[in-house]
Amino acid sequence: MTETLSSDEPNPEHLAADHPSASYLRGDEDLQYPFEDIPKGDAVVEVTEGVIWARIPLPWSLDHINVYLFDEGDSWTLVDTGAQGDRGREAWAALEASVLQAKPIKHIICTHLHPDHLGLAGWIAKRHGASFSMTQSEYLLAQHLWLGGSKDFPEEELDFLFKSGVSRSYEEKIKSAGFGNFKRGVHKLPYSYNRLEDGTIFKMGGRSWRVVIGRGHSPEHACLHCLDAPLFVSGDQILPRITANVSVHAREPMANPLAHWITSLDRLHGVGGDPMVLPAHGRVFKGLGNRLNSLIASHTRKLGQLHEWCAEERTTVETFPAMFRRKVTGFDFFMALGEANAHLHLLESLGLMKRRFDDEVYKFQAVGDATDVDYVAACRALPGIPMRPITELAV
């Protein structure tokens, strides 16, 4: 759709998409970018010996995903794949012809379930006879979304939108979009997978790697920490110039993903050192600790602004002026709705926001004093949120 939508108008073309694209919140820290060149087409960058950085184009405003190839001698291991579609398949055909040197991809690892990361996994696995690895929560939720794709829009999804303050006048427009966008962006998944868990150690490209789980952007996002070299594959958990979207979704309407996100970011300080970070979007960078601090600080500022704005009772849609510095339109509307709910839910869980249901919509009002809250410590104290420190994982 080409029309411009106001902050209370949803765009049904993108409504069912389950890939929460990134929010454009820039950090203020100094990062180092070791490489002047950026991959384009079949031109790639060798990050270090045996580690290749390539890019697959995406058909969205966030127009690329970084994928990483690890040389196994007679084959390759691949981390993330790109979304299903002609552009992605054509990009992989070009890489196969110019970069893979007739060696097959024998192992695929997907950091999480969003279509730009997972979309071509089934296609590549079948094409190359590759094994497939993922965390259990991500794999099972991806299968649920893929098998549940439908032309009929679930009433529960509509109810979630209306309770968040979306006008019921858009009901027919929303229903007309159907509910199959995730399935359109993701090839049929491999039937079987190898389960990754927090602390799993495995070999990749001749080096030892450890899985470090992050939560909030997705349920069980796998980052990969190299134990033999200063390398860290961050997926969407840590991006250099943008921050991944953290949303509440209709399938878990009372979730508290921002608490998981903030504690996951703080936990990643346990990686230590100053590894080269291989993110899913943007450029390879150094400065992990500074970037983690900046990401946490950006949400701390938003929580303070939101608490102040809700001195008067507000619906979720009515909190947008406090949360976002620009007009929210199109696909961004649904990312914004999910993210606003995530911030409201965190404040509610900390006793700083109360919720009232007026038989049609939830309304939120601030309580207490949020001026000097230590959100990292407060989130860590919530039940079910903290994870064991990285320093306690096996090496």
Largest sheet, described in full? 7 strands, mixed
Radius of gyration, CA atoms, in whole angstroms: 21 Å
Number of strands: 14
CATH architecture verdict: 4-Layer Sandwich
CATH fold description: Metallo-beta-lactamase, Chain A
**Globular, elongated, flat, extended or rod-shaped: what is the shape?**
globular
Q: Approximately how much helix is present in the residues?
A: 25-40%
Which blocks of ≥5 consecutive residues have pLDDT under 50? 1-9, 11-26
How does the helix and strand content classify structurally? alpha/beta
Number of helices, counting only DSSP H or I runs of 4 residues or more: 12
Count of spatially separate domains:
1
- Spatial arrangement of strands, main beta sheet: 1-2-3-4-5-6-7
For this structure, what is the CATH homologous superfamily?
Ribonuclease Z/Hydroxyacylglutathione hydrolase-like
- Write the H/E string, N to C: EEEEHEHHEHHHHEEEEEHEHHHEEH
Mean pLDDT comes to: 92
Assess the beta-strand content as a share of residues.
15-25%
Outline:
The protein is an alpha/beta fold and 395 residues long. It has helices at 86-98, 115-118, 121-128, 136-147, 155-163, 171-175, 181-185, 257-267, 288-309, 320-323, 331-349, 375-380; strands spanning 45-48, 51-57, 64-71, 76-79, 105-109, 131-135, 194-196, 201-204, 207-214, 221-226, 231-235, 276-279, 353-357, 362-366. It has a single domain, classed as Metallo-beta-lactamase, Chain A, CATH 3.60.15.
